[in-house]
Structure to design on (94 residues):
């Protein structure tokens, strides 16, 4: 989802869903099309989230301590409203 937010489109957008799943499995974790445009903080955040081996992947607590989530100046609990799914299909911001 982070790559989708950065790129404004999901990886393998032009592929059929099953093929996109296969490509992700075959090619590994999708990367940014322009990694040189990402800050060091975003790169660290992505590496924490995208580690394939579960035993090496960061926990939710470790990810929440990642500095990138604090750089916007808001409290972490304020992010929950921004990340909440639009269940009513209204497309309105909280």
């Amino acid at each position: 989802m982070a790559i989708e937010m950065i790129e404004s489109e999901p990886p393998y957008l032009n592929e059929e869903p099953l093929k996109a799943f296969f490509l992700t499995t075959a090619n590994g974790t999708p990367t940014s099309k322009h990694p040189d445009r990402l800050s060091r903080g975003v790169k660290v955040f992505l590496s924490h989230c995208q580690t394939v081996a579960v035993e090496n992947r960061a926990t939710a607590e470790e990810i929440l301590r990642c500095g990138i989530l604090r750089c916007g100046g808001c409290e972490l609990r304020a992010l929950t409203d921004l990340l909440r799914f639009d269940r009513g299909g209204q497309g309105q911001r909280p």
About this structure: The mean pLDDT is 77.
